[in-house]
Fold this sequence. Notes:
This protein is of the alpha+beta class. It folds into two domains: about 230 residues, no CATH class; about 110 residues, no CATH class. The chain is about 55% helix and about 15% strand. The protein is built from ten helices and eight strands. It has an eight-stranded antiparallel sheet with strand order 1-2-3-4-5-8-7-6. The two termini are about 20 Å apart.
Amino acid sequence: MTLLSRYTIKLFIKIYLISLISLFCMYFIIDMVSHLDRLSKATPESASLLDTLFQYYGVRCFTLFNTINATVVLFSAAATIATMQSKNELIALHSMGASPNQIAKPIIVVAIIMASLAATNRELIIPRFQQDLTRTAQNWTGNEKIPIQAKFDHRTDILFGGRHAIKSDSTILLPRLHLHRPLGRFPRIIEAQSAIYTSATKTQPAGYKLKNVTVPASLDSYSTAVFEGEPVIVTATDHPDLKDNELFVVSRLPFDLLVAQNNHYKFNSTKSLIGLLQNQSLDYGAHLRVQLHARFVQPVLDLTLLLLGLPFVLSGRNQSLLFSICGGVGTIVVFFGVVFTSHAVGASGYAISPSLAAWLPLFVLIPTTYFITKHIRR
């Protein structure tokens, strides 16, 4: 590694870390203004507020890094080269025969490493803290009653709904199930006092245990309903752990989906996203397929954003740091405008396919990057 490369990398990493930490601190301060009081009330007596804040904001550092990494890399690159320009170091380097490519190469290498770290963060670190990331400051303990978004089990055509849910014990209060196809002798609507979700085990499939069933009024005359050769609504006669007024509804519709936001899958790994698409009980539509393909494209897009912004500071003119930042901001606006527009069109499921929507930004931005970056070549 040459002396120029070591100096450039050292300056770039210094600016990168300062920018990243500054943005983290800004986010924490702004967010704590509205959430500190709620987190303080949710902190149990056996723990300190500092522990709660560390747990709440610690895991959110990973999602924030995933969101801003590419932008911070571009800003750091622009600030690095602009700093060298302000000290007239670029003039000395050009007089010694150093080309713009030689100056930009170490920055690009570090950007590739940062994009790899961001991909590792998305696939390995964020999925491990998925449960903590879905906990909000308003319901940090998970004991508050929250509304339910009714969801279909597309394999059995059962609509799962209810009055409220409690996340801490995966319970639905006053569940109401609508059967959109005949299942045994059960009526089209089943109601109970509560329903508890249990994950799949070696001896039992995933599903919901309905307690104190109120509709139908009596379960004595009902037997287990079967769909496609598999039990769907299990009664006490076929399940030793059930009482006479209880039912077990087999479903691969996870409890978290009933209380999650529409973008909850952003915390999943690529492997988990593939599993969601293969789950016959779920139908996410085109938007999840767009996000799945976008996972493979994202590392290349992170590097593309840097290459689009570098010419603003490597054009050879004596530009100020402010001009470089303004050029970088314009690049970011155009870049994310192309990406978000493509994803939105693909998620609609009409104009273009989800796979094309995820890859289309590369088809647009890579040729643009080539024509822009060739102007900084010697």
